[in-house]
Write a structure and sequence with these properties.
Elements: H1 4-9, H2 11-14, E1 18-21, E2 26-27, E3 34-35, H3 37-50, E4 54-57, H4 69-80, E5 88-93, H5 99-112, E6 116-119, H6 131-147, E7 151-156, H7 158-161, H8 167-175, E8 182-187, H9 196-201, E9 209-212, H10 218-224, E10 236-240, H11 247-258, H12 262-278, H13 290-295, H14 308-319, H15 324-334, H16 343-349
Parallel strand pairs: 1-4, 1-10, 4-5, 5-6, 6-7, 7-8, 8-9, 9-10
Antiparallel strand pairs: 2-3
Helix pairs in contact: 4-5, 5-6, 6-8, 11-12, 12-14
Length: 351
């Protein structure tokens, strides 16, 4: 498995080309559901068996932003028990949890063998926080991760944090204490030109992998990525919550991109995007992928319930796909666990 030293030495050459932003399987009832440890391990091991290169724990897709520090700690410990082989485990921490809590979680990550930690702006920043304020908040965490020999990823997800991480903020962090350990920036924003394109073009970030997190932009990022590296290597990566429920489809489109079959990549991505939109209530906000989690048999959201109408909207999108191969791959992906509440329906669509 890749080590933090490998990633720090050559981020573009070593960083996983695609990472699944993982669901958090749940059990129990409202007002708050609990992590299902056995299901979590089984889910991660099935992703690893497919050849997924990276898994991100405590991600927005898994509602990690809603979990308490103690719940995040339990999730990290549980995920570390999964037999992942060469699949790289990563985790996302939150500045608003404070220095003491994050130090404890960083210690856990270092001890458990997580080579990469991601950090986003905290939800406790004011909406008008400037680049200086953002970088000042994240600098101590970058330094603390570096002290534990962890590689660091930065993350812009204003839908959650309320404040974006700009390329200039990222450049300040790269130049600051521990900045040599920064290996990637993940960008989950609806406007590609104002986010991903600027990160790829920023000269002080030219050694970093720029990881596309807003799924409909993946094809463009992969096509443009090599143009932003002096050696023509792939600068763009993927971290996808949608890949949690569409693993077979994403592995297919990644291989199409590797072969330079861009038309096929676009068609396969469009099919996945149809599911994304079926779970997206506002085109400017990220889809509620917890609906896919429920269909897979991984439980309801931590603090909510998926309604039947929301499920049927996803199935209508799946059944309406024009290409049978897309429909089969996506149905197989949603039936990854093989025993969810819609197993029979998905199995029929997968054959």
């Amino acid at each position: 498995m890749l080590t933090s030293a490998d990633l720090i030495a050559d981020p573009i050459g070593h960083y996983p080309r695609a990472t699944v932003a993982c669901f958090d399987p749940t059990r129990g009832e409202l007002p708050r559901r609990q992590l299902d440890a056995g299901r979590t391990i089984a889910f991660l091991e099935r992703l690893a068996a497919l050849g997924v290169e990276g898994v991100l724990i405590a991600s927005s897709t898994g509602q990690g932003h809603l979990r308490t520090v103690e719940e995040l700690e339990a999730w990290l410990r549980c995920a570390a028990r999964a037999r992942l082989g060469n699949t790289v485990p990563m985790a996302l921490l939150r500045p608003e949890d404070g220095v003491t809590a994050n130090a404890r979680l960083l210690d856990l990550m270092a001890d458990a063998g997580y080579p990469v930690v991601f950090l986003r702006p905290g939800t406790n920043l004011p909406p008008a926080a400037d680049n200086t304020r953002v970088s000042e908040q994240l600098t101590p965490l970058v330094a603390a991760a570096t002290e534990r020999n962890l590689a660091v990823g930065l993350y812009s997800i204003p839908d959650v944090s309320g404040v974006p991480l700009t390329p200039d903020s990222a450049a300040r962090l790269v130049a600051g204490p521990g900045g040599a350990n920064i290996v990637a920036v993940k960008v989950t924003e609806a406007d590609y030109e104002a986010s991903t394109a600027r990160f790829l073009a920023h000269p002080e970030l030219a050694h970093l992998k720029i990881v596309q997190g807003w799924d409909p932009h993946i094809g463009r990022a992969l096509r443009e990525g090599p143009g932003y590296d002096r050696q023509g290597r792939q600068r763009a990566g993927i971290t996808s919550g949608l890949m949690s429920l569409a693993a077979y489809q994403y592995l297919h489109l990644l291989e199409a991109g590797k072969r330079g079959e861009w038309d096929e990549l676009d068609l396969a991505l469009e099919a996945a995007t149809v599911l994304f939109r079926a779970m997206q209530d506002d085109p400017q906000h990220f889809a509620d992928l917890q609906r896919g989690k429920y269909i897979m048999g991984l439980g309801h959201p931590v603090t909510g319930t998926v309604e039947e109408g929301q499920v049927e909207r996803v199935f209508a999108a799946l059944e309406g796909l024009p290409r049978p191969a897309d429909r089969r791959r996506l149905a197989r992906s949603l039936d990854l666990m093989g025993d969810g509440p819609y197993h029979a329906r998905l199995a029929a669509l997968a054959t």
